[in-house]
Each structure stands twice: as structure tokens, then as C-alpha cells.
Amino acid sequence: MKKKDIYLVLGILLLAVAGWLIYGLFDRGSAVEIRLHGEVYETVSQGQVKTVIITQPDGKENRIRLDEKGVWMEHSTCDNQICVNTGKILFDQEQGLSLPKSIVCLPNGVTVELVGVEAGE
Amino acid sequence: MKKRMKTKTVTTMGLLTAVALILGYVEHLIPISPIPGIKLGLGNIVLLYGLCLLTPGQTWMLLFLKVGLSGLLFGGVSAMAYSFAGGILSLICMQAMKRIPGFSLIGVSVVGAAMHNVGQIVLACLLVESRAVLSYLPVLLVSAAVTGALTGMAAQLTIRGIEKAGLNRHKTF
User: Fold this and answer.
1) B37: closest CA among B141, B153, B107?
2) B154 band by pLDDT with thresholds 50, 70 and 90
3) Which residues is B1 bridged to in the sheet?
4) At B129, is the secondary structure helix, strand, or coil?
5) pLDDT digits (tens, 9 = 90+) for A29-54
6) Is residue A69 helix, strand or coil?
7) Which residues, numbered 42 to 61 in chain A, qualify as contacts with chain B under a Cβ-Cβ cut-off of 8 Å?
8) Which of B36, B136, B138 sits opposite A80 (nearest CB)?
9) Residue B92: Cβ-neighbour burial (10 angstroms; 0-12, 13-18, 19+)
10) What order of strands is seen across the sheet that includes strand A61-66?
């Protein structure tokens, strides 16, 4: 291990922390944008209690639940279940910076993201 | 003029491909995180070996064999696509890194691991057409810095051992 290697590792860690802060701190939203294969499927503003079910022609299904505090993926037909395991993402930062701001289900092409009202239109 | 592959080259490539596949399989058995992409990257040890002791062409061949075969054996089509995206970007950057003086194999490995994740995230962004996927990148970068350093050390020890034992004669092909 050389000196430059250590600088490199530190540099990458710094970059990661910076990215994390920028994403987590300054861009928390007040609406939920649900996208299917990149196109906005539905935008729900904060405060609504709702269940959104996305069914695709090939049998893929995602069930997204919303309440006053946040949004979570209740059920997905995908094989890795990462979206379901992400848990609930909250509008308020009461649980600190470690909280994710989006739920991604890659196999089914579904993303759920907190966005500002203006971004959600 | 195209030369036929020497028997020794064929044997070495076969052996290294097998090692890469086994390492990939062993890795599947060690669940360290529910997020895919966060993994030890043991297979990269073989590519680092290739970078040091094989020709660039042979190293590329190793990458394609490793990704293609492990995709067929363990992953599936989408897993293979992600591995290719990560692997190709990773190998390009590692080859560039190798030429920059002042870095040891550990630095090369860290860059490789980080770029592997960047490649996968970029493909995910293109496939899902959403920037939401980008939020995983910071976590993946942290894990790449750690696992990349570890696999780099492992590769360094391996290569040193092999050179000591005088088994690196295929350098001459």
C-alpha cells in the first residue's frame, strides 16, 4: 500500500459522503413520484393515504402504500425484494440522514421517489 | 499473421477462468449485504492477476469468459448485462490506472471496484430511466473503497507468492 493509494481511498470516501449529503440534505420533497420504466405513473402529494397498485401486462405487480408520514413498497413480484426491504421512506427527516429518499425496484422497472412539488408539477 | 494459441496459454486461461468462476460462486455464499453491488468482488483478483502477468488481450478474454459463464451458471440475462457494464468500465479504468505511477495494485483494485459499481448504476439509470437509482451510488462507493482495498491486498499477496514460486513463466508468451 502506497501513500497515493491511501489518498485515493480517502478521496473516494469523501466523494461518497459529499454525494450523500447533497442528495440527503437539500433535496427532500413533499410529494411522491411513482415511475414505471422512466415515465411518471402517478404523483401523490404529501398527506394522502393511498394504495397504488401497478400491474404490468407480463404479470409483474407492485403494491405501494402511502400514509401521512411516508411511503413504502408493500408487495412486489420481483425476485430480489430490495424494494420491499428498503422499508418506509419519510417526508420528514426525523430519522436522520441515513434515510433513503427513494425506493427502486429494478426488475420491475418501478421507482418511487420523494420530489419537490414543483418537480412533480 | 495470426498465431495459434499455445497449449500453455489455453491451459492458463482455462485455469484462471475456473478460479474466477469459483471465487464468484464462493462470493454468492457469503451474504454481506442485501443490496446487490455490495459484494467482496473476489473475482476481480483474477483480473488483477491478468493485468500484472498476462497480455491486455488475454485479460479482456478472461473478463468476457468470467462474466459470460457466471451469467449462464448463476445469474441470468439481466445479471449478466449488469456485470458486463460494470466489468468493461472497470477493466478500462484499471488498465489506465496501471500506467499511472505511484499507485500499487491496491489503488488499481479500488478504482476497479468503484468503476464496477459506477458502470452498473449507469446501466440501471438507463434501464429504469430514473435518477432515483443514483441514490445508491454513495453507499456503493464506500463499499467499493473497502472491498477494493481488500481484494487488492489479496491479489498482491497472490502475485507475490506466484512470482516467488517461479510459476509466472507464462509471462513470456
Assistant:
1) B141
2) very high
3) none
4) coil
5) 678 889 998 888 999 988 889 899 99
6) coil
7) none
8) B36
9) middle
10) A50-55, A61-66, A70-76, A89-90
